[in-house]
Amino acid sequence: MADYFTHFSCLIDVGSPDKAARAIALFQELRAADQDADDPEVAGFDIARQDAPEGSSLWIRDDDHGDVEAVIRFVLRLAEELDLTGLWGFQYALTCSRPRLDAFGGGAYAIDLGARKSIGWSSTQEWLVAALNGEDVDA
User: What does the pLDDT average to over 88-94?
Assistant: First the structure.
């Protein structure tokens, strides 16, 4: 039997050590609330300070169940709670413990923190299908 994984590892700079502490506290609060939730809000990833304790960057990485959508929801919530602005994004990889057709790939998301929305995403699988169908794709 094959196991499928979603992997990611990225940084987000929240602007100050105080905001980083607030972000960690929010994550821990949401994680505690998720213990009794049917639809957990922050499952599938973990966060930690990158340059503790004086740093303002947070390291976001997958856990055993890597959940890209949960990262996006959390970062958008951080943008609202901490009044973040600018553009931010991350890449993810889809992998498998055994060689399987269509089991590998990945993609990327770009988020406008100030507008509090995703501004675009890319999937390697969709890009490949379009390229093989002779569609005009940006390399």
Answer: 97
